[in-house]
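Protein: Metallophosphoesterase family protein
Species: Alkalicaulis satelles
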Amino acid sequence: MTRFLLAALAVLGLSLPALAQDNLAQLRPAPTPITDAPRAPGAPFLPGGAADRITLAPGADASRAMAVSFRTHADQTETRAEIGRVLDGPTSAADVRALTGESRIVADADGAARYHHVRFDDLEPATRYVYRVRGLEGWSPWLPFVTASDAFAPTRLIYLGDAQNRIGDVATRVIAEALTRPHDMVLHAGDLVASRLEIAHDDEWAQWHAAGGLNYAMRPQVPAAGNHEFVKIDLEDGSETRVLTPHFPALFPVPANGADGLPDTTFVTDYQGVRIITLDTTSAVELGGLETQTRWLEEVLTDNPARWTIALFHHPVITCARPENTEFLMEHWTPLFEAHGVDLVLQGHDHCYARYSEWRLPAGPEREAAQQALAGPVYLVSVSGYKMYALNDRAAHESDRYGADTQTFQLIDISHDRLVFETWTPTGGLYDAFALERREDGRNRLVEDPRERSPLRVCYGDTGPDGGPCHGSEK
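Structure follows.
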């Protein structure tokens, strides 16, 4: 029966994390794909003759390796790319190499499409390259990227919380505005899409990719998988499990250095002195993946040459909307973050904004004193999309800064001894800002930014901070 179910899931384009496959015998023999979700008018996202959805991802060492994914018509069975050093003249590229890769079919309401992966290895550090990929009817434009330095160098990152719902008409404005800022790499904290009944899943991914356009092909994208990157499957006992949507591993060719059994959703990348560790909290929360990720997390924190370290995942350790914190993450991961000097923990899921440091201490002089030598990371939660949740009754006194009913994006500027974190709203307001200054003993001092910030944004009863209805629902 297990073989039959694996085959059935493969036909549907679905896969289970290895850690969940022991539960396959409980699954119904014929899970049904969602085919009746609303479609984009005119079916504008069908695969065609040109390669599209081109997405760049960093290698484990972003000074030496990158990877690209792209979508083509299913009939394009060859996976081809070319890469060379950029030139100033119209020849575009020098020392061009022809590369091949691997592909897979992903079937959805829009029909079958082929997704391709090509890995760019043996690159030179701090070097400008251009590449192009082959579609059914020709080549893409030459697209530029720059490898990271192999030594420490200043870096700017963009961090985006959940886009998830109404990506095309609401979340796009925030993503597009963020991407106008100079940056080196983009970090996504999960729930990039909803993967539910609101819209055909492929149309939803098309809207997400349209929001970033060719930027996604020219700056490396680092995605954490959220619970909405997993599709629900009913079990015989009436409960549910989740399988990773086929679009996620097809779209993101992440480094193959993650936790055992979770190659598509856990990985680490080093970018010119910054280590980014991406974890899969859905597998940890629901699919038995906590222990293997905890072991792996300790390994990549222990053997860590980076000066700054960021953890990226979806479910927040400290929640700003849900009544309870995620205690098992706090029990297993927080001690490792504190013991190994993780600087930032970037999260999503709660659809509100919050920043936490020394959150166990009361706000005021006691917390401010502890911020002079932080015992652990600064935890962030943000949302870029439409759906909002109401703040819980702890956010106002546990967090350093909080907000509701507010779409934001974040800029993170990292230099040798200083990290500056900024939260911006769509109107151009600076909503939050702070710096981490590296002390001589290796710990961080948190310094509040002196610039004027936008007023606190919360709902007052049914009235939202913009004067209209409050969109946040209780969790």
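Remarks: The two ends are 38 Å apart (CA to CA).
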